[in-house]
Amino acid sequence: MSRISFVLLPILMTTLMTAQNLSVSQPTVWATKPDVAAFEKIENDRLAAAQASIDKLLAIKGARTIDNTLAPFDDATRQLNAAGYLAGLMEQVHPDVTFRDHATTMLTKVSAAQTAIALNHDVYSALASLDLSHADAATCYYVRRQLLEFRLAGVDKDDATRARLKELNQKATDLQSAFDRNISDDQKIVEADPSELEGLPQDYIDRHKPGADGKVQLTTDYPDALPVFTFAKSDNLRRRMAIAFNTRAYPKNKEVLTDLLKTRYEIAALIGYSSWANYNAADKMIAKGTNIGDFIQQVNDASRPLAQREFEMLLAEKRKTDPGANQIWDYEGGYFSELVRREQYNFDSQSVRSYFPFMQVKQGILDTAADLFHVTFQQELNVPSWDPTVETWLVIDHGKPIGRFYLDMHPRPGKYSHAEMAPVLDGIRGKQLPEAILVCNFPAPTATDPGLMTYDDVATFFHEFGHLMHHILGGQQQWAGISGISMESDFVEAPSQMLEEWIRSPQVLAKFARHYKTGEPIPADLVARMNRASAFGRAGWVERQNGFTAISYDIYKDKPESVDLDAVTLDSTKKYTMFTPLPETHVWASFGHLGGYSSAYYTYLWDKVIAEDFFVQFDHSNLLAGDAPSRYRRLVLEPGGSMSANDLVKNFLGRPQNVVALEKWMGEEFNGTGAKADGE
């Protein structure tokens, strides 16, 4: 931080302290600075330890007990998860392409070991024979859910079918890795004339100097691409960037994704499901694939009237320079939304960037989380890592470490190009601290550049930190298999989306939003205008997410041979949003969630419904007042995966979730608290 010459917020002393005065025997993930050989030894040792635990479990001749059966099974789970987390992380962040290749290979090996256990009928029978009559509720839930996962893996099928499923699962893992790698490895370049940068922030222009040929080179990485879509006055530049951005990994990923669809369909069919979407929903809150289609329609019905009003405002803005316009291309949405916010709400999103330098935002989020979750954070200094910019932090609760996290926050070649929280270790009470990492791509501060962030950047940071705190606070379980964010996967976005709402709080912004040059706090009227402007476009955002949800569902709900990837993408965009997609783009090729989330991209909207329902339980005049913060930590985050997410929701809300809060959130721009009310 000493390299930054700009005015910073006063920093909490707890976050400047090192962890040397704490008893933390658990080494950091990169403590040995492994080369490829050392990395593979770490992974192979974990695989061997997992197999030893399974062998121990299978060797039991007498009565099955929690200690002699579930305990070794869970230890194998812990070892395999740790191996998979590390391999997946290195595949995404290691600066050396050869190391990333070895990580991909090792990830495949880990997946094969996990599949072998999932298809081991003797392991399944051992768990199924456990007497749970005296076990606690969390242990009972763990075993019941694990037995469901075994059945979904096909453990009860005949030997030939299990052998085929093992082969197919391995193939699916390889294809998903290839799909992800093709996206992260395909950084495209868009050449621009310096005049085409008009409208972009000055610090952006300063970072993109013309080369010897007089041209500026822009990449498709987020810090380069997203500002172009929002601020560049040149329609031609925005269009070229959209085509480059939305053709990443094309055509490479066409064959990969098509093969992945076929592989997953065959897995589902062998288990007894009519589609991958139905199979994939069986262990989730939503329960059935057909319910995804119903949810898409429910969201569309709720958002369309409001989205239509927003679209008419955008079209009116476009017609100021193009009187005959009757459509808005999908790449134009961000630009015209920015113009509407300036014209209708007297808000220029660049005006807040001066109050959001990266270092202040980071500190502000740490301080906010400390207040909300009643913890403190202490940085561990001089910790080795795969890149010098990576930071290591401890989470402290009542004077004791309860978790560790890593921050890898800035772009570099070959690195995962989006933003995510990834587990590093599962927490086991009294045995292993939970660890996680944030992998992001925010502007990097330098001695001359504070790394100013956009409003959306800050919201993303809050979002990912919500995931991180969920993993840490939920990582205090007896068993690795129910630790952290191990509940139904269509709940995991709810806590992170709920924490995004904190950026709208003047109380929260007061912690860190100060001008990077003068130190002046962000003006109250600017915050009010920012919040009014941020309310504009919410229904359009919901529709866009619903369009992606439909793409995700539609390509996985039918037989693969009937799926035309481009047709599904274009049709879903047209049906569920008001915008017109560019026909020369291939969005699916770089839609990374089609690999990991597969048919379950609905999770984001499903959890947005839950997140807004959660958020209305807090006192919006003082988010830290009352019992909501402590109840939220205790009832939603701390249980981890020890019970169904449906129960987590009902325990906090007193009922199942509904869309009332989401509809209110979407309509805030038109109900008198957001945009100008009708007639004003």
| Total of helices | 27
Number of E strands: 7
Shape: globular
User: What fraction of the residues are assigned to beta strands by DSSP?
Assistant: 5-15%
Major β-sheet profile? 5 strands, mixed
Strand order of the largest sheet: 3-4-5-7-6
**Overall mean pLDDT score?**
93
How many angstroms does the end-to-end distance come to?
Answer: 48 Å
Task: Return the CATH topology of the largest domain.
Answer: Neurolysin, domain 3
By CATH, the architecture of the largest domain is named Orthogonal Bundle
Which stretches are low in confidence, meaning pLDDT under 50 for 5 or more residues running?
Answer: 1-21, 673-680
Name of the CATH first level of the largest domain: Mainly Alpha
Class by alpha and beta content: mainly alpha
Number of domains: 4
Percent helix, as a range, is 40-55%
The radius of gyration is 25 Å
